[in-house]
Structure formats: C-alpha cells, structure tokens
Description:
It is built from twelve helices and 19 strands.
Amino acid sequence: MPVNIFSEVEDLIEEIGNSPKEDTGLITPYSEFNRMYGGLKNSNIYAIASRPGQGKALEENTIILTPNGFLKIKDIKVGDYVFSIDGKPTKVLGVRKWENRQIYKVSTDDNQYILADENHEWTVQQRSDYKWKTLTTKYLFENKFNKKPKIPNYKPIQLTQQRLLIDPYILGAWLGDGNSNSSVLTSNDAFIINKWKIFGKKIGLKCKKYSRYGYRLCSNNKKNIFTSYIKYLNIFNNKHIPQIYLMGSIKQRRALLQGLIDTDGYVAPDGQVEFCNTNKKLAEDVLFLIHSLGIKASMYESDSFLYNKFCGKKYRIRFYYQYAAKLPRKRKNCINSKKYNHRYLSIEKYGVGNTVCLQVDHPSHLFLAGKALITTHNSTWLNDICFKTSINPKNKTKTLILDTEMQTVDIQLRMVA
Length: 417
C-alpha cells in the first residue's frame, strides 16, 4: 500500500521548527553542507563521491616556485614543497594529471596571468559583500561581476640566507648603474659612493675616481677580485640577477632591490616606485624580485628614444613598497604598500590542453602559482570533510578516505592502517 511520505516530512518540519537546531546530524566544516543536508547522520557507512575527471588543475607548463627554484607543475611530485599564502614552504600531498581539459586564461590587473581549467578553484572576495568565497574558474567566467573579484595577498617568500660573494645592495647598485664589464660605478650621490668605497675596502680594493661621476674599485696588482666575482656569477657583459640572489633571504632580497632602486629607480612624491631599464632579462628578474617580497607590481613595454632616435624597447616596473629604497631622498617618499597590493581577476576562454592538480598540506589550501606568484586554491573538499569530521569528538565511527584511482594494494593498506 502506498505511503504518503510528504505528510511525514511536513510533521518533521514542524517538529524541527518547534525545536530548532543548527544541525540534525554530525556537524561538518562546511556550513552550506550542514544547512542543505543537516550534517552527517549516524550510519555504518557514509559515502561521499565525485564524478571522475573533476580535479581542480592548472595548465601542465605552469611555473611553480619551490625552495630550490622554479619547476613546471607537471614535474612536481608528492613530497616536494611549494609556497603558500604565508610565504612558507608547504608539502605537496597529492598530484593528479588530466588530459584535454577546457582551459581559461586567468589574468590579474597587474598584467600577469596563469592558465587554469574550468574546475580549478579560486578563493576570492567580491566587493558586493566583501566575503571570501571559493569559486571555480567556470563560475567566475560565466558570472560577470560589476567589479572584478579580488584574491588574497601573500606574505614575502621565506627563503634561506645565502652566502654571497657581493653584498646584495652593492650588486643591485652595480646592476643599476655599473659598467657591465668592469668595477666602475657611475653615481653623483655621496651616500651610494660611500657604500661603494666601504665594500671595496672590505674586499681589499681601493675606490678611485674614474670620470666625472665614475668610481672604479682598483687593486694593487693586475687581478681585480670584483671583476673575478662578476665573471664567476656570469654577469660580466651579461647583466641579470643571479639565481642565488633571487633565492636569498628576505633581508638579502630587500637590500638587492634597494641597490637597484637607489641607482636606476625613481620614487614619486605619491610613493609610487618605478624601475626602468632596456635590459628585458634584468627587468623580468627585478619583477620577480619584487613579487617575492609580497608586492604587487606591473611591467610595461614601450619604445625607447634618444634625441628622437629609436634605441629599442624599454621596460618600466611600477609598484608601492615602503622599503624600496635606502637612499634618504628616495626613501622618504616610500609608503606602505598594503592597500595597493590587492590583485583582481578577469577570465577568458583559452583553449584545450593538459592540466595538473596539486593538493598541499596547508590549512588555507592555497599555494602560489606562476612566476608572478598568483594566489590560487588546491582541491581538498572531500578529504577535508572526511578528515575534519573524523576528528570531531562527537563522531563515534571510523572514517576511511579512499580514491577511485588508488591501486588495490593501496586500498588494502589504507584499510589495514
């Protein structure tokens, strides 16, 4: 005989309404899940499944910063370390690869971008309600917001202090205003010249005036140790920032940037800092250096002219940073960068390609992707809901987390454990 379940549901609704409870089952970490399903109910087995091929992934050639330098995401393995929003290394717990996925170009308002598939997740804040939400690329693409969604800022990357041949401030000054094939620095600032002299004395060289504004570090014999250093670092007639300097401590990288800005930079009265150079490689290195300090920066390419004659391309980098300069007349204009550091997203379809998904061991589930260190999300919803529920003191049942792609032996070992 048919049973009218609707009348029973109506009775249940009335009962819950008379005795309201936030949840009728075991509370999970997800309020929306609790609201929709009343939490998890006590049962012998509770299965939570996802359709295959739903990994949240980035295009396989996306560059990811690790403590040992950059790797393509397709080359990252379980046990490797990447960086999270707090600037600290976080362990990679899982890697998944996918083929022939719909890819979107996710751009930031500082002229940076990475490629992500439609299911990749982003933690964003919409200016309509200022609440942080985790949304997919496809959702962000299909829902055109009046104002672009904002992603979280990240803190300066924490790297190990390096043993450096040349003081980082001095190297920055030489990269900015030094002769590319000698120990000559061009400057008319006594502050910078004095630091050049002090460093020369430290490595056994004397500082002599070479031209109106040029100062050379000289030795008493034919061998000039400074020239030997720049040859060893492969920057003799090849100006760029050596990898070891880009991977230095926060203090070392900050000093390097200050040397560059004191010589080849400008700080406007409103606090905006600009670095301009015709060397594209050096400009790209400086851009990463700034990003590694947790600072948003934009680079612009334009034509360069001298006396109305085209001289090639020039590259301008603009940003705000209170520690950008050490030279007093520039330092006084530097301002706190916090309110200028927010990045805003725009999304467009890109094509089809292979992607890779990472799972990281960080409570925020966020990691930094691309050379521009864009804050993005990994995929852990199912693991998270199971793990956090399993450690809930109200839960009297055991929890087993399995993956449909696990081998039989791995499933058996997981069950035994």
